[in-house]
Amino acid sequence: MSYPSTVQAITISKTGGPEVIEKREIPFPKVAPNHLVVKVQYLGVNFIDTYYREGLYPVSEFPFVIGKEASGVVVALPTDESVLNDPDYKKRGYKEGSRVAVDYLGSHTEYVSVPWKTVYVIPESVSTLTAVSALVQGLTAISFMEESYNVQKGDIILIHTVAGGLGLLMTQLAKSRGATVIGTTSTPEKAALAKANGTDHVILYKSEDTVARVLELTNGEGVHAIFDGVGKDTFESDLIMIKRKGTLVSVGNASGPVPPFAPIRLVQKNVKLLRPTMNNYTYTPAEALYYGNALFSLLANGTLKTQVFKEYPFTTEGVKQAQIDLTSGKTTGKLVVKVSD
Which helix (H) or strand (E) segment is 191 a member of? Predict the structure, then answer.
């Protein structure tokens, strides 16, 4: 097919605050023989977008197209015969017109050209909006709760920022596995949402002593696992709240990265510490297919339910506001940007 010569994209020309975000015209993405081309309908807004924007994660060149999550419709298939004949590719069932969700850095644009492995076909029972609101956080929740720490029936786990998009999905998944969930959040309204999604005990960290409350709930033993997307501000407390032989999963850096520390500190309780990234659990085509199938199955059967906080316009100001809102601590669930119908 013929493509437009240019597309509109959300970019940065330097690292910094939300003010560096700019919607601009850029050349149509280069279409490689092993790529699918997708017309984008929705974008997912994630903390990783702010990490690149701030310079916490390295940017290869400017202008840099931000974003790592999108959904839309396939408008062109790969042309490489070796790809088309690949058994793993054939298992995906891609077709022109397929609705898909995309996990790919640089996705906040009208069209994306992406390697097929990171493109997930959306089943009929799941909407394009639901898919974009669940993809990155859902794949993260499932892979982390299977491989970082395999949550089991009878476990007691702690999830920080439990009312956010990832926290709510982790709570639903942990409850479906038979775990008891303790969650932290900032407001009574967020606490009510967390409880409605299955959280057993919610701690309002601004007015309660999180460490004391967790130890009280666990008879002084601590929790089997902690999933912490806050980072710097909660890490020291995590080492107190974790159980002997427990697992601390550092999920993100909302308050900043955890400072360097001496690993010998883990010997006090034989603690396991991980700082994983979802893409190293979905690295191979087989892994990506496994976790993609698991996610859409859990969405289809109602085990996982997404909560869209707000849809923002595909404008400079719209994306700026989405990132400001996300980092303010005032949002719940998922933030999305609508690009096209």
Answer: helix 188-196
What's the pLDDT tens digit per position in 185-225?
999 999 999 999 999 999 999 999 999 999 999 999 999 99
- pTM value surpassing 0.90: yes
- Name the nearest CA neighbour of 330 among 310, 312, 314: 310
Question: Tokens 């969650």 appear where?
Answer: 183
Tokens of 101: 């969700």
Could you tell me which of 204, 271, 202 has the C-alpha nearest to residue 235? 271
148, 120 contact by CB (below 8 A): no
Q: Model confidence over 305-325: pLDDT tens digits?
A: 999 999 999 999 999 999 999
Q: How many CA atoms lie within 13 A of 337 on its CB side?
A: 31
Q: Are residues 37 and 111 in contact, defined by beta-carbon separation less than 8 angstroms? A: yes
What amino acid occupies position 77? L
251 phi and psi, to 5 degrees?
-90, -35
CA pair distance 26, 7, nearest whole angstrom: 6
